[in-house]
Write a structure and sequence with these properties.
With about 325 residues, this protein is α+β, with helices and mostly antiparallel strands. The chain has four helices and 16 strands. It binds zinc ion (ZN).
Length: about 325
C-alpha cells in the first residue's frame, strides 16, 4: 500500500533526473489513492486481507473455462469480492506463467476481475531483484485501469500500431532489463522508463499526462462504483495535540486546518509499550484516549497512523 500510494500520489517525476528531459515535461501524478477495505461485502468490519489455504498447485496460473481458479472458492481459490466495488488483488503462486496479470476493464466480469500476482513481487523485497521495488503491482494497476504496454506490436519493426496514448512515442518493440537512453524505435527515442514498459523496477519512472487521463476516463467508464478511501489529511495539514481542560490522562487531538481525518491514534510510553489505541473515522477535534487514562507522570508519545501519513508527538505528562 505504501508503494502504491507513494507512486500514485506523492512521487514527483518532474524532479527525477533519471527521466530524460524530453520526457520529464509529460510526466504526471495519477493521484489515485489506495486503501485496504474496512468493510467486507456483507458490511462486516475487516482489515481487507484474507489468507486462504489451497491444495491447488500453482493456483495463480490456473483457469477453468474462463474462470481464474484463484478467484473462486469452489475451485480452491478465495471468492472474489464484488469487483464493481472492490479492487481485488490475489496474491498466489505463479510458477508456470508470467509473474503477474491484470484483467482489462473491458474484459472484466463479476467472477473474473482484478489482479493476480506472485507473492515474491509484492512490496519492497530485495531478494526479488530486479523486480524488488513493488512496481509490478504499479504496472498491473495500469492495466487494471486500461493502459496497454508502450508497444502493442508483435513484429519487431512494425510501427503501425500504437498504445492509443498520444504522449508516449510509437515503439515497435518492448524493452526489458535496463536500456540506455536514447534507445531508438520507430525513428524516435523510446520511453522505455515508463511504468507500462517491461523493464526492471529500478528503471521505471513515470506515467504520462495522457496515460493518467486515460486511467481516469476508464475509471468513469468501467470502474466508477469502486469504493473510496476515507479522507486522511490534506497534504499540508498536520495533526495537533492539546491538553484537555477537564481530564488528566486525556488530550484533545485535531488538525491544523480543522479538516476531517481518519486514523488510528496510539499512546506509547517511554519504554515503547503501547498503552492504548483508538480508531477515529471522519473526526475533527476530539478527545484521545476516548476514556481518560490513569497514567504516571513521565514522557509519552502520541502516534497518528493513517493509510498515507504517520506522525508522532512527544508529550510530557506531569
Ligand atoms: Zn503488462
Amino acid at each position: 500500500m505504501d508503494v502504491l500510494n507513494y507512486i500514485f500520489n506523492e512521487y514527483n517525476p518532474n524532479f527525477n533526473n533519471q527521466i530524460p528531459e524530453i520526457f520529464r515535461s509529460v510526466a504526471a501524478k495519477p493521484q489515485i489513492r489506495f486503501c485496504l477495505a474496512k468493510k467486507d461485502p456483507l458490511g462486516l468490519a475487516t482489515n481487507g486481507i484474507l489468507r486462504v489455504k489451497t491444495m491447488v498447485e500453482d493456483i495463480g496460473c490456473r483457469t477453468m473455462g474462463n474462470q481464474k481458479m484463484i478467484m473462486a472458492a469452489n475451485l480452491g481459490g478465495s471468492q472474489i469480492w464484488d469487483p464493481k466495488r472492490y479492487l481485488n488483488v490475489f496474491i498466489g503462486a505463479r510458477e508456470n506463467c508470467p509473474r503477474a496479470e491484470a484483467i482489462f476493464p473491458w474484459n472484466a466480469s463479476l467472477s473474473t476481475d482484478g489482479i493476480i500476482i506472485d507473492p515474491r513481487l509484492v512490496g519492497v523485497r530485495l531478494s526479488s531483484h530486479p523486480f524488488h521495488l513493488g512496481y509490478t503491482l504499479v504496472h498491473e494497476l495500469g492495466h487494471y485501469f486500461g493502459l496497454l504496454h508502450l508497444s502493442v506490436n508483435s513484429q519487431p519493426d512494425d510501427c503501425s500500431q500504437d498504445d492509443g496514448i498520444a504522449d508516449t512515442p510509437p515503439q515497435s518493440k518492448n524493452y526489458f532489463g535496463c536500456p540506455i537512453h536514447p534507445s531508438i524505435s520507430c525513428g524516435q527515442p523510446s520511453m522505455f522508463m515508463n511504468f507500462m514498459s517491461l523493464v526492471q523496477d529500478d528503471c521505471m519512472h513515470l506515467f504520462t499526462v495522457d496515460q493518467v487521463q486515460k486511467m481516469n476516463e476508464n475509471i468513469v467508464l468501467y470502474r466508477s462504483e469502486l469504493g473510496e478511501c476515507l479522507p486522511v489529511l490534506a497534504d499540508s495539514a498536520k495533526w495537533v495535540v492539546s491538553y484537555s481542560g477537564n481530564h488528566f490522562g486525556q488530550w484533545i487531538v485535531g488538525t491544523t486546518d480543522e479538516s476531517p481525518w481518519s486514523a488510528e491514534v496510539c499512546l506509547i510510553d517511554i519504554e515503547g509499550k503501547i498503552r492504548i489505541c483508538n480508531q477515529y473515522n471522519q473526526a475533527t477535534r476530539t478527545a484521545f484516549p476516548k476514556k481518560p487514562l490513569q497514567l504516571s507522570p513521565g514522557i509519552y508519545f502520541i502516534q497518528f497512523k493513517s493509510d498515507m501519513k504517520h506522525q508522532t508527538y512527544k508529550i510530557v505528562y506531569y
